[in-house]
Write a structure and sequence with these properties.
- It is built from 9 helices and 6 strands, in the order αααβααβααβαββαβ.
- The protein has helices at about 5-10, 40, 70-75, 90-100, 105-125, 135-145, 145-160, 180-190, 215-230; strands at about 80-85, 130, 170, 195, 205-215, 235-240.
- The strands form 2 sheets. The protein has a 4-stranded parallel sheet with strand order 1-6-5-2, sandwiched between helices.
- The radius of gyration is 18 Å and the shape is globular.
- The structure holds zinc ion (ZN) (2 copies).
- One zinc ion binds near residues 52 and 69.
Length: about 240
């Protein structure tokens, strides 16, 4: 792109978080830039090893090798999961604006921020299709877009895998999970999801995408629906993960 340097000169890009001017520059990690300044980047807690190789929960200890956590050993889940960053600081702020302040374009910085941190996991898994966690049509009307689908678009484009929208569905209206405890969250979303056309997913390696992981109950309910559709494997990724204190 010859235009970009010229555009940067007249309209210097701003940091999506703090609106500071950014120095001109090209791609990072071979990807378009997420347009987040150094100071804001430094405040982001990216989730790194050691973590559970199955569910991706980071271990509190410094150093050491990643391994399977006790909970995953006891009840091995069907899917593996990773999140790029802790739901805190600039990431929390961006996601809040993205979801609740009508800023769909923030899927770009969030997706581009997450991708390099999930890249090894994603390439190891080698998904054949990307499936976003669906919204109920009532919520979709309220918000105007499905934030997980927009993040999924960035990941699908970067991975070169197609995104399948509208097949995994949220049949049943559920109360927002915010404010519910872990047990209520599981009951709230149980059986809320289903697959319209299982044949389009059967035997496939599916990458399930959501913006935030809290207790994982929404993710598990989606994975149950995908399993019923006889997918070969599911890996789930989110931009952020709420870490319980
Ligand atoms: Zn900034
Ligand atoms: Zn685990």
């Amino acid at each position: 792109m010859f235009l970009r340097p010229l555009l940067d000169l007249f309209f210097p890009p701003l940091c999506h978080v703090c609106r500071a001017y950014l120095p001109p520059g090209g791609a990072e990690h071979g990807l378009p830039r997420p347009f987040i300044c150094h100071d804001c980047l430094a405040k982001i807690e990216f989730l790194e090893a050691p973590l559970c190789t199955t569910c991706g929960i980071p271990f509190a200890t410094e150093g050491g090798a990643s391994h399977t956590c006790g909970a995953c050993l006891q009840h091995p889940p069907f899917h593996t999961c990773r999140s790029a960053a802790a739901l805190d600081g600039p990431v929390r702020e961006l996601i809040h604006r993205f979801k609740y302040r009508d800023r769909p374009h923030l899927s770009e910085p969030l997706g581009l921020l997450a991708f390099p941190r999930l890249e090894i996991f994603l390439k190891d898994f080698a998904p054949e299709c990307v499936v976003p966690v669906p919204l109920h049509r009532k919520r979709l009307r309220q918000r105007g877009y499905n934030q997980s689908q927009l993040i999924g678009e960035v990941l699908a484009r970067t991975l070169g895998a197609p995104q399948q929208v509208g097949n995994l569905c949220r049949w049943r209206w559920t109360e927002p999970q915010t404010g519910l405890d872990a047990g209520d969250r599981v009951t709230n979303v149980r059986g809320a999801f289903g697959v319209r056309d299982p044949e389009r997913l059967a035997g496939k390696r599916v990458l399930l995408v959501d913006d935030v992981l809290t207790t994982g109950s929404t993710m598990r309910a989606c994975v149950d629906a995908l399993r019923e559709a006889k997918v070969a494997a599911v890996a789930a990724v989110t931009v952020a993960r709420g870490l319980q204190p």
